[in-house]
Amino acid sequence: MQTLTVAESGFLYIFKCIGYYSGGCLYLLFYVAALLFILLKGSEKEKAVFFWPGIVTLLTVFNPVTPVVINTLFDINKEYYRFLWIAPVTLVLSYLAAKFVIQKETIGEKIVLTAAFCMILAGSGVYLYSSGYTKAANIYKMPEEVLQVANIIHNDSDHEYPRAVCDYNMNMELRQYDASIMLTVDREAYINAVAGKITDDMLAYDENPVNRILGVIVMGRQIPKSDFIKAMDDSNTEYIVLDHYSSMQYYLEKAGLKKIGETGTRVVYKYTSNNTEVFTLPDYSEVWKQQKFLSLWQN
């Protein structure tokens, strides 16, 4: 789940994004200083390769307005946005550092300057364990509850690929841990629900069954239970995982779902339908054998 959003930070998002990884904006200042040096002391080739693209980067990637504009088109994630500024900053700073070191005449000077650069760059970042060291609960480095929820679902299901809907955090983590549990809701649909973009008209008339399920478990809308059950049937959803504090548990039980297990903060409900289409992976073994035979025959 994101710890930094444009909606909360606004025009300060880019600075908070940089600060999240560097502890401040020193890398940005180093980058600006490097560009100024190239402008004043660099060759024409260096200006063409580093300076002018750097100006474009400053006016776009480092522009506080850019994340706000992009966020109106699609959700911005700091883990991905950082790639836009990591590459140019790294290239320019490492190039100039290497250039300064090469210009020194003696080995001793080169070693001292290299060590100085390393200390400056390392000191400008964020220590990996600055907030403390936490031992992973398991080899998957996932919350233990994710494993517990997956086990509850698989122990109950009579086929290999059950389909489930979870609360947002569990939905994101479960897909990383167990790909055999098919998730009814994708990330974009969940974001639309959290942002309140699913309207009452969509819940009443929309043919997309996922919206009705999200309307119930995310937005807390008590739509007619027959509509909810139809959405469960149409999407082949068998399991719903909610937070213990969710107010929709009573609704699910009244709709006919059965509680089959609990963890520390999650409760798992099962919906039984006679019309569930069991998901199976395509078997390409015969196709592979035919292709292998044809290739041998052609040779």
A few lines on this structure:
It contains 15 helices and five strands.
Describe this structure in words.
The protein is built from 15 helices and five strands. It is elongated and about 80 Å long. Helix content is 58%, strand content 7%. The longest helix is centred in the first third of the chain and has 26 residues. Helix 9 links the parallel strand 1 and strand 2. The two termini are 53 Å apart. The protein has two domains: 118 residues; 127 residues, Rossmann fold (3-Layer(aba) Sandwich). By secondary structure, it is an alpha/beta fold.
CATH architectural label of the largest domain = 3-Layer(aba) Sandwich
- β-sheet strand percentage: 5-15%
Taking the sheet with the most strands, its summary is:
5 strands, mixed
Overall number of structural domains: 2
The average pLDDT is 84
Strand order of the largest sheet: 2-1-3-5-4
Helix content: 55-70%
The H-and-E topology, N to C, reads as: HHHHHHHHEHEHHHHEHEEH
Level-1 CATH class name of the largest domain: Alpha Beta
CATH topology of the largest domain: Rossmann fold
**Separation of the first and last Cα atoms:** 53 Å
Radius of gyration: 27 Å
Structural class: alpha/beta
Shape: elongated
Unreliable parts? none
Report the total helices.
15
